[in-house]
Amino acid sequence: MMVMVNYNEESYNFGKAGSKLYEMNPPKGFQFAIDRGGTFTDVYARCPNGKVRVMKLLSVDPQNYEDAPREAIRRILQEETGNALDKDGKVNSSLIESIRMGTTVATNALLERKGAKMALVINKGFKDLLYIGNQARPHIFHLNIKRPEVLYQDVIEVDCRVIPALEDRCQIDKSKQNWKESVGTTASYVNCNK
C-alpha cells in the first residue's frame, strides 16, 4: 500500500515510509491539522481510507464563507463522503476524529502592535514585574538599554493571592482565610483568597 496526497489535482507519493505510518495507525475518522494565518488558512486532512488532502483558503472571504477552517473541513468532507452536513445543516462532526489548529494571527497582532488595547491584571505589589523582567539582555554592560514597549495600556493591581492547588506541594490552612478553589485558564486548579 502507498500513501497518496491529492494537492491541486496532483498526486504526491510518500512511498514506503508513508504507507508504514498509515498501517501502524490508520485513522478512525477524518483527522484535520489547520494553520490559520492572517492571509491564508492551510488545511491538512488525513482521510479514513488513507488518502491525504491538502487545501488552502483565504482566511477572510465573507462573500463565500464565514470561517475558513470550518469551510475547508466542510469542503473536504463533502468531496470525500458526498455528505458533509448533518440533519441540522451543520458540519457532521461524527465523521471527524480530531482537529488540531494553530494560528499566527495573535502573534502577528502582538508583533505589529495592532491588537486590541489591553490591561495587565496582576497581584498587588507586582505591577512592574513584566517591565522589570529578569534583566536578561545581550550586552549586560551597555548603558543605553533599549527595551521593547509593553503590550498593555494600563495596570490593574488586585489585592488577592493565588496558590496552585497541589495538595502534595502547597499546604494551606483553608480555615484561617476565605480560600476558594477555582479553575485557571490552563485547566489547572488554584486556591484564591478575596
From TrEMBL:
Q: What is this protein called?
A: 5-oxoprolinase
Q: Which Pfam families match?
A: Hydant_A_N (PF05378)
Q: Where is the Hydantoinase/oxoprolinase N-terminal domain?
A: 32-164
The record's GO CC annotations read: cytosol
Q: Name one GO biological process term.
A: glutathione metabolic process
The UniProt GO MF terms for this protein read: 5-oxoprolinase (ATP-hydrolyzing) activity
Q: Which InterPro entries match?
A: Hydant_A_N, Oxoprolinase-like
